[in-house]
Design a protein that fits this description.
By secondary structure, this protein is an alpha/beta fold. Helices cover about 45% and strands about 10% of the residues. The longest helix is centred in the C-terminal third of the chain and has 20 residues. It starts with 10 loop residues before the first helix and ends in an 8-residue tail after the last helix. It binds S-adenosylmethionine (SAM). The site of S-adenosylmethionine has 21 residues, from loops.
């Protein structure tokens, strides 16, 4: 039997089955222990430090107690603290991105994914470089600056060289005032050498969803192909970091296994990265399983209702306050509205989950990975965010300024967020409004920018931001950043 050790590099030791079961039991025993729950809530609260704020975060055991707790007033408290953390570290900014599907060729047998090898009726497509260019132009013309590239695992059709070539093409396209300034990568677990190549290609975050932390289920859900290797998949982030990638993004596909198990596993993974590499995950994604070609989500009987989904997100926010949280268009507008407040810091907009989908007039379904619930245009999403008091941010400054890994944490601690992320969000929103927005969105946006500029504490920074915003409106000068 493997012994739990967060600093181990062996999957079964840092994601330890016995420790997860013990955590779930501990949480169950303490779910009405009001004294302990209050103590945990107090620990999670942000505290002032110098000009900024710090947070201690929670261990997987502490956070699991909160997740198990069903006392309405305590749940309310969790939500309040989640919102406090969100406001202290992320303000009302929401970073925007879009997925770009490069290829749906795949040699794996993942039973929940329509790209699985045995699916003979899904159209298989792989973008040529010309097609990548056209997709990028379509994305730039919507206003996107940040992409997450997605591809199935297929060493023959989608080798690392293909992925690298696509990244190069993406960064090379400048249509009108458009530019993709950050490419995040969601491709299958690979070697240290390949991660090093991705790093050299200038990627932002390397994202890989664990799907499920439950090994026995994992093996059944991934019956064939290289992804069947649970250990290789689970240890991927360590290889990515060894290859020099500072920012890694975790996630589980909720609905495959019991959420309490996944929740503990996810936080143990974050603790492991912190213990070994001195920095936790840059982001955590919270996808839920969706209907797709050849896939009926009802077959997976661990689906979670919206209320529980909201609670999971709030508890993650309390446990890992410095980790960004991502929600995709898998979720409906109503659901996204609820969870945005609880600590989500990044959302996708106007996504197409099919290969070549952005250059098609109509949303194509033949090569889609999953059904998209939120089908609004980017302009509609941006306007809706602002109407709900959020600032849509197209900022990509951090990693371009070398603020990767744990450096976001020091921004928070030094109280520099409002002098840095806030003006960056406002300047990139101005770019979006001037270059791509409808008149209605522009009107709401420019008013919001005027009001939000007042929150920049340092006069000098505020003046520079205002002058840059004037420049963006009056000329084609773009890409100002702090
Ligand atoms: N091929 C890469 C890999 O092996 O990890 C990842 C790319 S895949 C295009 C991105 C993610 O979509 C998967 O990790 C999975 O969690 C998610 N996904 C697959 N099928 C899904 C479905 N039916 N509903 C929702 N999400 C799904």
């Amino acid at each position: 039997m493997a012994i739990y050790n967060p600093s181990s590099l062996k999957a079964e030791e840092f994601i330890n089955h016995e420790e997860i079961l013990a955590t779930i039991e501990y949480a169950e025993q303490n779910k009405n222990n009001v004294e302990l729950i209050d103590e945990i809530l107090e620990k999670a609260r942000p505290v002032k430090s110098g000009n900024g704020c710090t947070c201690k975060g929670l261990t997987h055991r502490e956070a699991s107690v909160l997740l198990a707790c069903e006392i309405p007033e305590k749940i309310q408290k969790m939500y309040e603290i989640a919102q406090e953390i969100k406001l202290a570290f992320y303000g009302n900014r929401i970073v925007m991105f879009a997925p770009l599907y490069l290829s749906n060729y795949c040699v794996n047998g993942c039973v929940y994914c329509p790209y699985h090898m045995k699916n003979k009726h899904i159209a298989r497509k792989k973008l040529t470089q010309e097609e990548v260019r056209n997709e990028v132009i379509a994305l730039q013309d919507m206003g996107h600056k940040r992409l997450a590239i997605e591809a199935g695992e297929d060493p023959v059709n989608n080798p690392i060289e293909y992925i690298l070539e696509c990244i190069k093409t993406i960064y090379s396209v400048n249509h009108k005032n458009g530019a993709i300034r950050r490419v995040n990568v969601n491709i299958a677990a690979t070697t240290v050498e390949n991660y090093r190549k991705l790093k050299e290609a200038g990627i932002g975050t390397y994202i890989l969803f664990q799907e499920t932390y439950h090994k026995e289920s994992y093996l059944k859900l991934h019956p064939t192909g290289p992804k069947h290797d649970y250990d290789y998949h689970t240890e991927a982030m360590d290889r990515a970091m060894e290859g020099g990638i500072d920012d890694v993004g975790l996630g589980v596909l909720f609905g495959l296994e019991l959420y309490k198990y996944e929740f503990a596993g996810l936080l143990m993974h974050a603790e492991h990265l912190e213990a070994v590499h001195g920095v936790g995950p840059h982001t955590i994604s919270v996808p839920r399983i969706k209907h797709a070609d050849d896939i009926d989500p009802n077959v997976f009987d661990n689906s979670i209702p919206d209320d529980m989904f909201e609670k999971i997100i709030a508890c993650i926010r309390l446990a890992v306050p410095y980790t960004g949280m991502i929600i995709s268009t898998r979720e409906s507008q109503e659901c996204r509205e609820r969870v945005l407040k609880m600590g989500i810091s990044q959302i996708s907009g106007a996504s197409r989950t099919s290969v070549g989908g952005y250059t098609e007039q109509e949303r194509p379904h033949d090569s889609e990975q999953f059904d998209v619930s939120d089908q609004r245009t980017l302009d509609e999403v941006v306007r809706w965010l602002m109407e709900n008091g959020h600032i849509p941010s197209f900022c990509t400054a951090c990693y371009r300024e070398g603020r990767t890994g744990d450096r976001f944490m020091s921004l928070c601690k030094n109280g520099q967020i409002l002098n840095c992320c806030h003006p960056n969000a406002l300047m990139t929103l101005t770019e979006y409004l001037v270059d791509y927005a409808s008149e209605e969105t522009k009107a709401i946006g420019f008013k919001m920018i005027e009001d939000e500029l007042k929150k920049v504490p340092t006069e000098k920074v505020r003046e520079i931001a205002m002058s840059n915003i004037r420049d963006i409106k009056a000329s084609n000068r773009r890409d100002f950043r702090f």
